Amino acid sequence: YVAGDKGVDLQSRPVPCIQNPDDVLVKVKASGVCGTDLHVIDGDFPAPLGVILGHETAGVVGKLGTDPGHLKIGDRVAILPVKACGSCNFCKTGRPNLCKKGGIANVIGLGPNGALAEYICVSKDILFKIPDDLSFKKAVLCEPMSTVIHGIDQMEPFDKDSRILVFGGGITGTLAASYLTDEGFENITVCQRSEARREFVRKQCQGFDVDVKSPEDIQNDFELHAGDDKQGFDVIFDSTGNAEVVQKSLDYLRAGGKVVIFGCAPATAEITIRPFEMFARELSMVGSYLHSNFDRAVERVASLNRKQRLNFDALGIRMFDLESYREAFSELRSKMILKAVFVMDS
After folding, report:
1. Segment 168-188, tens digit of pLDDT
2. Residue 334 forms beta bridges with which residues?
């Protein structure tokens, strides 16, 4: 849980109680740590003091309220970490991620208590069954995959031969490259400053036509191909949340190109846009916020797993028990790993 100046701490708390008819008590089997969790710990992202972190989660249904819907005790589930109202204009038009009653302040682990714990109580409406051949530890990737799928949906329309640049070789950038190759896109470049992280991307995308380059490589290529068909990109997917990177992305776009702002930048970050350039080159910029179509994410993670494309070593993911939380956060901060997954029991 978030412990103020102490960062995070581990403590014993009562098992949450079922209070509403649609409540479900889930025994957590695995829960991942997101970059947003680190921002919360550092005080750069608002969350209540004492909140239990964790919004990338899979587990088993343990207890049910009086209105369990399609669920039964023992079901294996992944958790969509935020519930939309279902009745506002955004919900009715297929954009529940923009629901004012949902939103990021209501994401478990950022507002309500999250799942870096043995149990969590949530609404039945945000539980999705996972197939038996998908392990709990890999089902944790359903949540980040759902955000990636929404971000890639925001790219459209674009062609299979589009030149695509993914800025950031962290877990979301790597999952984005995996998704795009799985969809048959072949002209993909991932840009990452850290050589260690570039190596993770190479391992994950081995056997596919993915170039993995440093920022200096990208700039040199851009200058080398000035004026020819190999200069620039049709779509740029920024997963860094770095305003300078977003700014530079506009320079790297071809005419008619689009930047998708996927990474979460600081609220005070700013960039400069030249309206005439946007007009004359028909450039586009679009944001990608939270998730959509969580069922698609479950299906895609299960599919990639069956194709042997979710190797934790290649993805830079390491497993820990809760008692080793200090080691887990230390390795994340030192960039020794891309993601920590806490496994609650065997």
Report:
1. 999 999 999 999 999 999 899
2. none
98, amino acid identity: L
Map 166-210 to HEC letters.
Answer: EECCCHHHHHHHHHHHHCCCCCEEEECCCHHHHHHHHHHCCCCCE
Mean pLDDT over 154-167 rounds to 92
Angle between helix 171-182 and helix 142-155 axes, rounded to 10 deg: 60
- What is the widest separation between alpha-carbon atoms in the chain? 66
Report yes or no on whether pTM surpasses 0.85: yes
Burial of 88 (0-12, 13-18, 19+ CB in 10 A): middle
β-strands 76-79, 284-287 pairing: unpaired
d(CA 281, CA 168): 25
Q: Is 258 within 8 Å of 285 (Cβ atoms)?
A: yes
19 CB-near residues (< 8 Å, 6+ apart): 121
Task: Work out the number of other CB atoms within 10 angstroms of the CB of residue 3.
Answer: 13
Residues 32, 56: contact at Cβ < 8 Å? yes
Which three-class secondary structure state does DSSP give residue 125?
helix
